[in-house]
Amino acid sequence: MVMDRIFSGIQPTGTPHLGNYLGAIQNWVNLQEKYNSVLYSIMDLHSLTMPKESAVLRQNILDTTAAILACGIDPRKCFLFRQSLMKCTGQNNDGNVGLLTYPVLQAADILLYKSTHVPVGEDQVLHLELAQDIAQHFNKKYGEFFPVPKAILSTTKKIKSLRDPAVKMSKSDPQKLATVNIVDSPEEIVLKFRKAVTDFTSEVTYDPSSRPGVSNLVSIHAAVTGLSIEEVLHQAIGLDTARYKMVVAESVIQKFTPIRNEIKKLQEDKTYLIKVLEAGAEKAKELATPIYQEIRRLVGF
Ligand code: ADP
Ligand code: NA
């Protein structure tokens, strides 16, 4: 019997945005409750997409750690660690790692812990297929060894850019006011929702294909309150879209104010953040070492 093991990674890009929270982090918080063996890796070896300056990277790692802890990731329920602290694993830390691409590194990480499930957004299913292919190839050649990791697809609708609902909300969107960061102040959140693109109909309805802007607001409102689309539409009866934007902004402020305060508190305690990551790495290493030794034995080096 193979024990279920969840693996997922996050890139240390600092504090997450609303899409990251609703599409990924919230799901991670639920998974750590449901499964006994859960690993979350801060993927700081994907050097091609990482800042070149080590001081910036270090700060981003700590900010990312503070943010996901504040969102409810609990180091007693999962192993939270920095990928680059896993030195035993044979992954090269001396700079050659840049030769490997993101999906290859991700596949190696997934397999190193014999992960059985990987939470992913739709946009990452292809990445996971590489890990599945490698597992199957390995098993064919050396005998059943790796579980073929299954995707756990996020059920959250993609959150769209507030300035252009044709594209997803993203940290790399250059448009001002398009992306809501979970540490934005209430004033910034209000401004971004006030400027959100809607259309010329004032009523609030949900129809993503013909009314993508207002439908995105409805999706966000439902996701942050935990209500259904029908329930939030019911609450919006009688409101025009301008008023409704402020209702959604308020729900986002309500949701993220405690998280934002917690992030600030955690950011002041670097020693604690480092301790969490080191303890997580220690435990992840304990899991990986025998697996890695067995891989070496099987392939004969
Ligand atoms: P970004 O697009 O901002 O660079 P990433 O690609 O680093 O975000 O994604 C990190 C995680 O957040 C992934 O699991 C991804 O599916 C999820 N995610 C990113 N943007 C969104 C969004 N707009 N809506 C829902 N989930 C998202
Ligand atoms: Na758990």
Automatic annotation (TrEMBL):
One of its GO terms (molecular function) is ATP binding. GO terms for biological process: mitochondrial tryptophanyl-tRNA aminoacylation. PROSITE patterns: AA_TRNA_LIGASE_I. InterPro entries: aa-tRNA-synth_I_CS, aa-tRNA-synth_Ic, Rossmann-like_a/b/a_fold, Trp-tRNA-ligase, Trp-tRNA_synthetase. GO terms for cellular component: mitochondrial matrix. Its EC number is 6.1.1.2. It comes from the Eukaryota. Its main location: mitochondrion. Transmembrane segments: none annotated. Pfam families: tRNA-synt_1b (PF00579). It is found in: Mitochondrion. Keywords: Aminoacyl-tRNA synthetase, ATP-binding, Ligase, Nucleotide-binding, Protein biosynthesis. Belongs to the class-I aminoacyl-tRNA synthetase family. This is tryptophan--tRNA ligase. It comes from Callipepla squamata (Scaled quail).
